[in-house]
Recover the amino acids of this structure.
């Protein structure tokens, strides 16, 4: 059996078409119309920001001790994984009570032989399962392409403020 789909290629083509259509649309606009569209877009963005700020003011955050303890535990295992896999690693807890694990390497091989290999798979799977957001992509570092992985964790619970 052989199955082959070029979804990435199709998506890239579609994005190029969308970009060309937007540029064509923008080229047809007068300066006044362009300014009007920009103001409308700015107002929509401002609305989104105000709604988020309003929601944030109506809640407060408390540390979720279960998530925090889990994060402390997984941190040790992730550092071991990074060391054995040759990954650069950065682990950071933020004042927002979020935590971020960033790793960077040339590639990662997840093998199936031996307990260490199984542990590596479990660590990566647990990071993916528990993260609020996951980014896996590539970038350049010192002229070389590298694999970037970023996992963001929410270590808090939001509680609604009560009115007195």
């Amino acid at each position: 059996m052989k199955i082959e789909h070029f979804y990435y290629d199709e998506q890239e083509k579609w994005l190029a078409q969308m970009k060309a259509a937007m540029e064509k649309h923008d080229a047809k606009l007068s300066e006044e119309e362009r300014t009007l569209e920009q103001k409308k877009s700015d107002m929509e963005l401002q609305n989104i920001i105000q709604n988020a700020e309003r929601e944030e003011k109506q809640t407060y955050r408390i540390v979720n001790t279960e998530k925090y303890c889990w994060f402390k535990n997984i941190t040790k295992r992730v550092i071991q994984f990074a060391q054995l896999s040759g990954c650069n690693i950065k682990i950071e807890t933020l004042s927002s009570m979020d935590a971020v694990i960033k790793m960077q390497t040339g590639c990662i091989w997840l093998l199936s032989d031996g307990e260490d290999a199984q542990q590596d798979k479990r660590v990566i799977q647990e990071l993916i399962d528990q993260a609020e957001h996951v980014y896996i992509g590539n970038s350049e570092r010192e002229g070389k392409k590298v694999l970037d992985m970023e996992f963001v964790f929410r270590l808090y619970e939001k509680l609604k403020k009560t009115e007195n």
About this structure: The longest strand covers residues 144-154. The chain is about 50% helix and 25% strand. The mean pLDDT is 91. The beta strands are 59-63, 88-93, 98-105, 133-141, 144-154, 156-160.
